[in-house]
């Protein structure tokens, strides 16, 4: 049949996880933790199901969870979103991103994305009949070139998407970046979609520059997050979007016919977890920073050159001292011949920088998993 998504195949994460399984490789490709979710969360989920919270929840999410999100947002970013009008619980950040785009972007309009970017953005834009306009981040630092963003804006630009901490690079937007953004968007009708799923995984004492800290940005923004990243449960697929009332109202028109509501027992579990164990998200940065530091030390005993990782749980490595293969062939070869799976960067780009020799390794893993990978990488 005539496909609506001619550019889309199977996601690189699925392709590489399948290849890893076929070849018994240590899978540092697809981003997911291999350690358990907090005990309290499992207990709370179990209790919620036994207490009978097994039917449709409110379309917007249970009040207790929206309350917990509002309180946590205020603690973290100094802004308390309205519980009823500004928070919507979704089936992962993926659903929130899809709903936000479909709620406001019309056919023929343009959405600016910064390459490399996460793979679910462009298909959602395409399905809306809109056009993704790709602006490249710096190939070494992955910092935005705000003048290039300014130059990409047209009368047709409806939305700008940002992602900090950034997948795949871990780069973070600075306060100066946020000031640039305010300046760029001022006086335009452009809506901001801010993907902040790694908001709590930030290192070296840095502050996460949430869009929610900035009134001039949040008044025109959807801010999206995911409990999967914060609570080590990517398979639970629960997230949320915060947006001003008028944007949330449009968002909910899509959400209510897309999924209507999300897995009710987990909403109860997260409400309890957020309120009663704030240490979990407060200490998440330190937890992952220790993993990052240990993994980077180990990488120095290999021929891979690690790039800086300000946030998130991915380590980019330059493999040019090992191979001149392009990144897709290199990641296949590494899996098949050396038993370690990484994710190539080129699928995150419309036009990958020529000659780029980078691969992404996920360090959200037990020490034993990372040790096993390093032992194999040392042989290269
Ligand atoms: N955005 C980014 C940058 C991500 O890395 C991910 C998860 N890999 C998502 C969105 C989707 O999150 P979720 O699994 O909650 O749908
Ligand atoms: N977000 C995960 C990553 O970047 C992948 C999620 C998925 O497989 N859809 O690795």
Describe the model.
This protein has 380 residues and is of the alpha/beta class. It has two domains: 12-30 and 283-377, Aspartate Aminotransferase, domain 1, CATH 3.90.1150.10; 39-277, Type I PLP-dependent aspartate aminotransferase-like (Major domain) (Aspartate Aminotransferase, domain 2). The protein has helices at 12-23, 39-50, 63-77, 92-104, 121-127, 146-152, 175-185, 215-218, 227-230, 245-258, 264-276, 278-282, 284-299, 327-338, 367-377; strands at 26-27, 87-90, 110-115, 131-136, 157-163, 191-195, 221-226, 239-242, 305-306, 314-318, 340-341, 343-344, 358-362. α1 (12-23) packs parallel to α14, α3 packs parallel to α11 and α4 crosses α10. The radius of gyration is 20 Å and the shape is globular. The protein starts with 11 loop residues before the first helix and ends with a helix. Bound molecules: 4'-deoxy-4'-aminopyridoxal-5'-phosphate (PMP) and glutamine. Belongs to the class-I pyridoxal-phosphate-dependent aminotransferase family. GO terms for molecular function: kynurenine-oxoglutarate transaminase activity; pyridoxal phosphate binding. It comes from Thermomonas aquatica. Its cofactor is pyridoxal 5'-phosphate.
Strand and helix layout:
Blueprint: H1 12-23, E1 26-27, H2 39-50, H3 63-77, E2 87-90, H4 92-104, E3 110-115, H5 121-127, E4 131-136, H6 146-152, E5 157-163, H7 175-185, E6 191-195, H8 215-218, E7 221-226, H9 227-230, E8 239-242, H10 245-258, H11 264-276, H12 278-282, H13 284-299, E9 305-306, E10 314-318, H14 327-338, E11 340-341, E12 343-344, E13 358-362, H15 367-377
Parallel strand pairs: 1-11, 3-4, 3-5, 5-6, 6-7
Antiparallel strand pairs: 2-8, 7-8, 9-10, 10-13, 12-13
Helix pairs in contact: 1-14, 2-11, 3-11, 4-5, 4-10, 13-15
The structure holds 4'-deoxy-4'-aminopyridoxal-5'-phosphate and glutamine.
